[in-house]
Write a structure and sequence with these properties.
CATH superfamily of the largest domain: NAD(P)-binding Rossmann-like Domain
Protein name: Redox-sensing transcriptional repressor Rex
Organism: Natronincola ferrireducens
CATH architecture of the largest domain: 3-Layer(aba) Sandwich
Strand content: 15-25%
Distance between the termini: 45 Å
Number of domains: 2
CATH topology of the largest domain: Rossmann fold
Keywords: Cytoplasm, DNA-binding, NAD, Repressor, Transcription, Transcription regulation
Strand order of the largest sheet: 6-7-5-4-8-9-10
Bound molecules: nicotinamide-adenine-dinucleotide
Helix content: 40-55%
Family: Belongs to the transcriptional regulatory Rex family.
Shape: globular
Function: Modulates transcription in response to changes in cellular NADH/NAD(+) redox state.
Length: about 210
């Protein structure tokens, strides 16, 4: 038996999307069984790390057999909450907001984009992949009516805290924030920041500090 999900460390959880991705690739290639050594060679984690990580999720590994890819993939999907479905909205319908709206893969994992919002009259009334762009003034009523779970912030950083406050007040449970600012939200609101420039600057550091 695996651990209670609440007892699994965040460090392990942060590695799960990578397992999920590799296991999905294996299933697509019709590979149904894999050893921790083979997974290790593919993923760049040590075999012992993989065994430790996956031991959190019950008896999917068997001595001499390896892992049942399908079962493990299913369990990781469950733990990541990817069996559920979520209503989402994007606030800020510029370059990034539209790029996210146009990326159809999120929908496959249950993230349904219900609407985009903006202040720019040129964007309001448009549709991005059949999803309407509404005036920001309609945000609260819309979230309330459609039971939106996740707000995605793609506005310039100056407006991001105000948008976060509005999203929280309207009743979203989680915020996916792309603005380069650390937002303050109540403790019961889940927030995940994607600071693309942080990642780019690490790349720059590594580029400039090569052996
Ligand atoms: N585009 C990228 O690749 C990228 C990369 C890293 C970070 N970001 C961050 O993502 C955010 C969006 O970037 P972008 O390139 O899409 O900018 P953008 O200027 O193309 O789009 C921002 C949109 O937000 C709208 N907006 C402004 N104030 C608003 C408000 N109060 N309510 C609703 N909408 C409002 C604007 O009208 C505009 O359409 C920025 O914070 C940026 O720093 C973007």
């Amino acid at each position: 038996m695996g651990k209670n999900h609440k007892d699994i460390s965040m460090a392990v959880i942060r590695r799960l999307p990578k397992y999920h991705r590799y296991l999905k690739d294996l299933l697509d290639k019709e590979v149904y069984r894999i050893s921790s050594k083979e997974l290790s060679a593919m993923m760049g984690f040590t075999a012992s790390q993989i065994r430790q990580d996956l031991n959190n999720f019950g008896g999917f590994g068997q001595q001499g057999y390896g892992y049942n890819v399908e079962e493990l993939y299913g369990e990781i999907q469950k733990i990541l909450g990817l069996m559920a479905s979520y209503n989402t909205v994007i606030v800020g319908s510029g370059n990034l907001g539209q790029a996210i709206a146009n990326y159809t893969n999120f929908q496959k994992y249950g993230f349904k984009l219900m609407a985009l919002f903006d202040t720019n009259p040129k964007l309001i009334g448009m549709k991005i992949r059949d999803v309407p762009v509404f005036d920001i003034d309609e945000l609260q009523g819309f979230i309330d009516e459609k039971q939106v779970d996740i707000g995605i912030i793609c506005t310039p950083k100056e407006f991001a805290q105000d948008i976060a406050d509005k999203l929280v007040k309207s009743g979203v449970s989680a915020i996916w924030n792309f603005a380069p600012i650390d937002l303050k939200v109540p403790e019961d609101i889940i927030i995940e920041n994607v600071h693309l420039s942080d990642s780019l600057f690490i790349l720059s550091y590594l580029l400039n500090n090569q052996e």
